[in-house]
Amino acid sequence: MTLSEILDSFKTKLSPSKFIDSLEKKASFYDESQNDSEGNTLEENLKNNPYLNSGNNSGNNSAESSNGIKISKNKDEPLIKLTDVWKIYQMGEVEFAALKGINLEIYEGEFLIILGPSGSGKSTMMNLLGCLDIPSKGTVSLNSKDISELDESELAIIRGKMIGFIFQSFNLLPTLSTEENVLLPMEFQEENRQIARQKASYLLDIVGLSNKKGNLPSQLSGGQRQRVAIARSLAVNPPIILADEPTGNLDTKTGDYILDFLDELHAREGKTIIIVTHDIELVRYATRVVYIRDGEIEKIEKCQKNECQKNEHEELK
Ligand SMILES: Nc1ncnc2c1ncn2[C@@H]1O[C@H](COP(=O)(O)OP(=O)(O)OP(=O)(O)O)[C@@H](O)[C@H]1O
């Protein structure tokens, strides 16, 4: 049973699945979150969750906006396509080209790492990939639809349905609890409140934070906040996850947990994962690495996991 199936159908009961078995292994990483307020372990919480069910829905990685943009299952078509993309920032009289003629096609099911040193244009590119910004020149297409043709409300719909963001700059809302932060994207999608709460509860379970639902972000560690951000990014079950330095500021152990979790979403759920980072260590998770420098693609390397050799690219650091 996939995460998609679980999230798509939160109504009848089901015994634990293989997916849950694997999540249990992940969850057991965190000693601190083993027991909830009632003394239940996370494993018990997962097994006893009454809302996990097989349902009749098949996993559904598609989404459609009012403008007809649809993520299809056609893996031959790029999911996201950048064609001669320029981003020029205007500072008074001075122009600065942060991206200079980027051409890139991203396919469904990729685990893409965009790697480059500070100032190379990674975040600028991420903002374009996430439909948070439009290019100064060139086109960004999502499933063959030019995003420049969409107005702000249409872009917001696309973002909400298709893209889960794990951005450091996308802070959790400080006055909302952990649970409320995870509920937020579902409220924007007009989810039934009761079902939304069930999903939020499930998602907080799988990131090992079932006992922190009422905490404010300020009452969480950096790694816990990042895990809330992951739960929030999965709330509407988007086909694409965009992560900007997802392990920045985290210790190695917590960073590995976050990456393993994303790796699992990629492997088991077929999510398209796109990460921008300066951290060469992350390339071991990638199916493809895009090396960027001074706003240009230096090279693109296709790789099987673990085949991208970090020593080859030490100079990027
Ligand atoms: N709003 C802006 N106005 C002017 N210049 C900008 C603006 N945003 C970014 N830049 C410049 O564009 C270039 C690329 O910035 P960007 O944030 O995309 O780099 P980055 O690779 O993400 O860097 P880092 O890893 O340090 O976050 C930098 O030289 C930066 O100074």
Tell me what you see in this structure.
With 317 residues, the protein is α/β, with parallel strands linked by helices. It has one domain (3-73, 108-134, 145-316): P-loop containing nucleotide triphosphate hydrolases (Rossmann fold, 3-Layer(aba) Sandwich), CATH 3.40.50. It is 31% helix and 21% strand. The protein is built from 9 helices and 10 strands. The chain has helices spanning 3-8, 18-27, 42-48, 122-129, 152-162, 178-188, 193-206, 222-234, 252-269; strands at 80-91, 94-106, 111-115, 137-142, 145-146, 163-167, 240-244, 272-277, 288-293, 296-302. It has a 6-stranded mixed beta sheet, with helices on both faces. The protein has a 4-stranded antiparallel beta sheet with strand order 2-1-4-5, with helices on one face. A hairpin with a 2-residue loop joins strand 4 (137-142) and strand 5. The longest helix has 18 residues, at 252-269. The site of adenosine-5'-triphosphate has 13 residues, from strand 1, strand 2 and helix 4.
Output the keywords.
single chain; 317 residues; alpha/beta; Rossmann fold; six-stranded mixed beta sheet; four-stranded antiparallel beta sheet; 9 helices; 10 strands; 31% helix; disordered C terminus; binds adenosine-5'-triphosphate
